[in-house]
């Protein structure tokens, strides 16, 4: 199972047949293992990495929002974090160490849309004390994929 996990992590788009060939097992064995891993919530599925800057369908603003929370007696941060996780706009929700308790990743069509989300939805959740929003200005690398490779400057290389 560990070899399959490493292969999925490095190459999420591989077919069952390709995985089977690379690992020296049958495609049926790979399929059974993937089914078991899905049931056990080890394997949660694949996700495409889109370079929204090149899509051209309006603005896609990404933000990381740090949230300070008053934990509930006997429930800690879980109740507030689970409430935040149920909001469709929230892509990621993590319990963090440091100055803030929960960190959220979300996308919107504009800075204003994200600001209104924080003001109207996030701040209204019981237990939320404060928030700090960080807007992504440019992505250089996302989930291990380099998003923007600089063009090679050949001005100093003159061939005669």
Q: Round the mean pLDDT to the nearest integer and report it.
A: 87
State the low-pLDDT regions, or none: none
Shape: flat
The CATH superfamily of the largest domain is: Lrp/AsnC effector binding domain/regulation of amino acid metabolism (RAM) domain
In DSSP terms, counting alpha (H) and pi (I) runs of 4 or more, how many helices? 6
CATH topology value of the largest domain: Alpha-Beta Plaits
Give a short account of the largest sheet.
4 strands, antiparallel
Distance, first to last CA: 57 Å
What sequence of helices (H) and strands (E) makes up the elements?
HHHHEHEEHEEE
Radius of gyration: 21 Å
CATH class of the largest domain: Alpha Beta
What's the topology here?
Blueprint: H1 2-10, H2 16-23, H3 27-39, H4 52-55, E1 61-69, H5 78-85, E2 90-95, E3 102-108, H6 111-122, E4 128-135, E5 141-142, E6 145-146
Antiparallel strand pairs: 1-3, 1-4, 2-3, 5-6
Helix pairs in contact: 2-3
Provide an overview of this structure.
It is a single chain. This protein has 160 residues and is an alpha+beta fold. The protein has two domains: 2-39, Arc Repressor Mutant, subunit A (Orthogonal Bundle), CATH 1.10.10; 53-139, Lrp/AsnC effector binding domain/regulation of amino acid metabolism (RAM) domain (Alpha-Beta Plaits, 2-Layer Sandwich). It is built from six helices and six strands; from the N terminus they run ααααβαββαβββ. It has helices at 2-10, 16-23, 27-39, 52-55, 78-85, 111-122, and strands spanning 61-69, 90-95, 102-108, 128-135, 141-142, 145-146. Strands 2-3-1-4 form a four-stranded antiparallel beta sheet. A two-stranded antiparallel sheet has the order 5-6. Strand 5 and strand 6 form a beta hairpin. The longest helix is centred in the first third of the chain and has 13 residues, at 27-39. The protein is flat.
């Amino acid at each position: 199972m560990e070899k399959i996990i490493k292969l999925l992590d490095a190459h999420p788009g591989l077919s069952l047949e390709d995985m089977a060939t690379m690992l020296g097992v049958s495609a049926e064995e790979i399929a059974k293992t993937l089914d078991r891993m899905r049931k056990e919530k080890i394997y949660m599925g694949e996700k495409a990495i889109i370079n929204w800057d090149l899509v051209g369908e309006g603005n896609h603003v990404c933000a990381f929002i740090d949230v300070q929370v008053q934990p509930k007696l006997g429930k800690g941060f879980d109740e507030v974090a689970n409430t935040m996780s149920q909001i469709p706009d929230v892509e990621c929700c993590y319990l963090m160490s440091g100055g803030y308790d929960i960190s959220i990743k979300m996308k919107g069509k504009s800075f204003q849309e994200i600001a209104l989300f924080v003001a109207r939805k996030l701040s209204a959740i019981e237990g939320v004390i404060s928030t700090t929003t960080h807007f992504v200005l440019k992505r250089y690398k996302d989930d291990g994929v380099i998003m923007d490779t600089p063009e090679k400057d050949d001005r100093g290389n003159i061939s005669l």
